[in-house]
Amino acid sequence: MVCNEAHRFLVAEQLRASNSDSSSIVLEPVAKNTAPAIALAALAAGSKGDDPILLVLPSDHLVADEAAFQEAVTQAVSTAQQGKLITFGVVVERPETGYGYIKAKHGGLAPVSEFVEKPDLATARQYMESGDYFWNSGIFMFRASAYLAALERYAPEIIRACQRAFDDAVVDTDFLRIDADAFAECPSDSIDYAIMEKTDQAMVAPISVGWSDVGSWDALWQVSPKTSDDNVIRGDVVSHDVSGTLIYGGDRLVTALGIKDCVIIDTDDALLVADKSRSQDIKALVGDLNGREVTDHHSKVYRPWGSYQGVDIGDRFQVKRIIVSPGAALSLQMHHHRAEHWIVVRGTARVTRDDETFMLTEDQSTYIPIGATHRLENPGNIPLELIEVQSGSYLGEDDIVRFEDIYGR
Questions:
Q1: Phi/psi at 184 (5° precision)
Q2: What's the pTM?
Q3: Longest CA pairwise span in the chain (Å)
């Protein structure tokens, strides 16, 4: 797994929840697009002395027919073993303006003729009618050495920066931390621009597997189960005379009346209401947010021990909902500027406060004064949930002095 450093605990928790191996999470200190990210993966995969075949998969795509996809991958392995750079092209189902396209002959593995950008609707119709184009899925397969060699030929500045950053990487529990200074010097480029549009080794493997990149709210509506009114509903939602609409609610009631083909997304951070046909324009809306905090910080924050979520904040106080995973523990720490009240609502907590250690169960609470050395642990078999009320002159996350931390922070 290659991910941004800010997402490391979310990724680790998802891997744990799916019983997957979490021992190879490569952390990008900054986002540099897909070509450098895949270079890091190739360097990591090949660091054990072998030359593995890499199947490069974006983390957020949907493949409805897994068996058909597995068969397509299996059939392409022998071509990848020969040093070819394979991209999986999706058989076009409709004139889609949200995807890039690949021109190649249909009928099996074939050389790439051309990569083209996202077209307008008229051009997309022409592509579909011609039968010479595939959707660009962003899924690739090749030997690690073949990709690194292609970078050396077509984008040497990328591979050299990535090699320096990888050589100076540091292992941090389940994470491989890439050197930030070296990686910052790496050019930002996609695999399409850096390699696939230049190489003569690119091949297209056609797939028809119910694929979607779920890259817009409209795409999510298309691939989700629908009600009799063609609505996609999640959460506590009451609607009347509504059709063709996606409504994603959170913890509070969402109501809708007399609308059609819309998107309503209610989260702890913000509320979005949009025409479903304008889903591809969300980036323009985000650009108008003018650096609001909501664009940089989620209300729910993942940590190696679990997560916390802001509930309320005001002058000199803050309320959080904290979840500690079974067997996990926060660092032994203290705060210079805030006191904390902990109220256990589910599970069992082991609390260290200065020289004493004691247990708390549901409906019990304790107080952590300013300057007290403290630690919170979950010795139980179920998640520990508690409400934390902070009070003080400064409530920033940087007011933490750590004395011991099993996660090496």
A1: -65, -25
A2: 0.75
A3: 76
